[in-house]
Amino acid sequence: MSDHEKSSNVVWHNATVTRERRETMNEHRGGLFWFTGLSGAGKSTLAHSVEESLHQQGYRTFVLDGDNVRHGLCADLSFSDDDRKENIRRVGHMSMLYVEAGIIVLTAFISPFRADRDNVRKIAGSDFHEIYCKASLETCEDRDVKGLYKRARAGEIPDFTGISSPYEEPEYADLTVDTESHLGDCRQEVFDYITKSTRNSDH
Ligand SMILES: Nc1ncnc2c1ncn2[C@@H]1O[C@H](COP(=O)(O)OP(=O)(O)O)[C@@H](O)[C@H]1O
Ligand SMILES: [Mg+2]
Predict the structure, then answer these.
(1) Is residue 85 one of the residues assigned to a domain?
(2) Is 5 inside any structural domain?
(3) Which of 45, 50, 64, 142, when mutated, tests ligand 1's pocket best, judged by the most ligand atoms within 8 Å of its CB?
(4) Which tens digits make up the pLDDT trace of 33-88?
(5) Ligand 1 centre and the CA of 4: distance in Å?
(6) Which residue in 77, 88, 167, 168 could disulfide with 83, CB within 3.0 to 4.6 Å?
(7) Could you tell me the CATH number of the domain that includes residue 28?
(8) What is the mean pLDDT of residues 153-157?
(9) Does residue 151 sit within a domain?
(10) Catalytic hit among 39, 44, 95, 111
(11) Ligand 1: residues within 6 Å at CB?
(12) What is the atom index within ligand 1 of the atom nearest the CA of 110?
């Protein structure tokens, strides 16, 4: 039992509608596509844009976005190292429930710590695909989509990734996209990768 498992006498109930049956019905496999990168690197933009293309072609998808999750499920968590770790742990498990439901999950979390991303890889196994949205700190800071870099530089936001908290680049990303280039090119690259990875014939 891990630190997080405090409930005993809990027995897993197996579904008769299995993941495989759902995937056969969907005509594609589920999978977890984990976008990581600095704030402003383009995780949300890219994840939603790829989801739009997938949806238009009949794929079952869902985007889990950091900001949205932190409004509800993880509203009790701060940006301290421990709470970031717990945030990613919860999202990892939640994502796998979606994957069991046959869904292609695209997640948009900075997830700055390699160890936390590796934990999700452990939870998800071969369903996990790490997609590194690579853009320099300078570019992200220039974009400053939400005005957060300016506030972080002014010392108004503690533990801000890239400024006062580290970002650990993936060492073995399954896919690295240069999000300083055209959004359309990035979308196509990620779309191709996801459709290839979720083909039912790979069963
Ligand atoms: N190739 C690209 N991929 C993704 N976003 C891009 C790209 N080029 C420019 N952008 C812009 O960068 C910004 C990224 O913001 P956002 O998606 O909110 O980042 P994040 O979710 O990583 O914090 C958007 O304004 C987007 O239009
Ligand atoms: Mg975002």
Answers:
(1) yes
(2) no
(3) 45
(4) 999 999 999 999 999 999 999 999 999 999 999 888 889 899 999 988 899 899 99
(5) 35
(6) 77
(7) 3.40.50.300
(8) 96
(9) yes
(10) 111
(11) 37, 39-46, 108, 143, 145, 179, 181-183, 186
(12) 22
Q: Is the pLDDT of residue 97 over 80?
A: yes
- To the nearest whole number, what is the mean pLDDT of the chain? 94
If you measure from the C-alpha of residue 13 to the centroid of ligand 2, how many angstroms do you get, rounded to a whole number? 35
In the chain, the number of structural domains is 1
**Does 8 participate in catalysis according to the annotation?**
no
pTM: 0.94
Q: Which ligand is nearest to the CA of 64?
A: 2
Long-range Cβ contacts of 89-97 (<8 Å, 24+ apart): 89/4, 89/116, 89/119, 89/120, 91/64, 91/120, 92/119, 92/120, 92/123, 92/124, 93/123, 94/64, 95/32, 95/34, 95/64, 95/120, 95/124, 96/32, 96/123, 96/124, 96/127
Q: Which ligand is nearest to the CA of 184?
A: 1
- The boundaries of the domain holding residue 90 are 19-197
What letter represents residue 7's amino acid?
Answer: S
Confidence of residue 127 (pLDDT cuts 50, 70, 90): very high
